[in-house]
Amino acid sequence: MPFTSLGLSPALLKALADQNYTLPTPIQQAVIPAILNKKDILGIAKTGSGKTAGYVLPVLMNLQHTIETKNRHVNVLVLVPTRELAVQVKDVFQVFSPFLTHPIKTLAVFGGVSINPQMMALQGVHILVATPGRLLELLDSKAVHLTDIDTLVLDEADKMLNLGFKEEMTRIIDLLPKKRQNLLFSATLTDDIKQINQIVLNDPLVIKIDAEQ
Ligand code: ADP
Ligand code: MG
Description:
The protein is α/β, with parallel strands linked by helices and 213 residues long. The protein has a single domain, classed as Rossmann fold (3-Layer(aba) Sandwich), CATH 3.40.50. The chain contains nine helices and seven strands; from the N terminus they run ααβαβαβαβαβααβαβ. A seven-stranded parallel β-sheet has the order 3-4-2-5-6-1-7, with helices on both faces. β3, α5 and β4 form a beta-alpha-beta unit. The relative contact order is 0.19. Bound molecules: adenosine-5'-diphosphate and magnesium ion. The site of adenosine-5'-diphosphate has 12 residues, from α3. Residues 32-207 form the Helicase ATP-binding domain. Belongs to the DEAD box helicase family. Keywords: ATP-binding, Helicase, Hydrolase, Nucleotide-binding. This is ATP-dependent RNA helicase RhlE.
């Protein structure tokens, strides 16, 4: 199945070709049309299977209908376990954003560095990629607001739980509007992930790609 049959815009299809993404991976084939249809997703597939572009592309397509962002109110929140992943995911959003009909700004925030530049940068941001602890600090100082969130992504959710972020994740999720799209990605389907699935996802499409595929 080619990328052209998944519902992406011609501009994004050209961007994919430029990136040498010739065929969608199995997880991408399954999740891209479903995310475009505003379904909640539980996506399980091993590391390296292309989960990032699987949500980045349709989330960007869906955002094109968002006209503007209010000051310090973000539209999409991606929670990740580590600084490295925050930067990687932000980079993938930024590779594809120039191919949209209007400008979309993505910012990555994470701990271990000074908070002030992140507070300053949180103006006019549509997509925030964050580690849970630093996001809570930014929320405490009112540098960002989550009341306009329409999409939540939990990426490497298994690793977030392994690193002990469950309480932080729950505190953040409690601050979000109830009506939103939820996308949960993990390499493994553990009991903890099943529990988060029950708390966070609303009638999700469960997609599990087996290792040999
Ligand atoms: P995961 O999150 O599942 O571990 P990533 O999203 O990090 O995997 O993708 C792994 C690598 O595969 C990245 O370098 C990415 O650029 C590349 N990639 C993803 N999708 C495709 C595709 N359809 N065609 C070619 N390369 C791809
Ligand atoms: Mg990943």
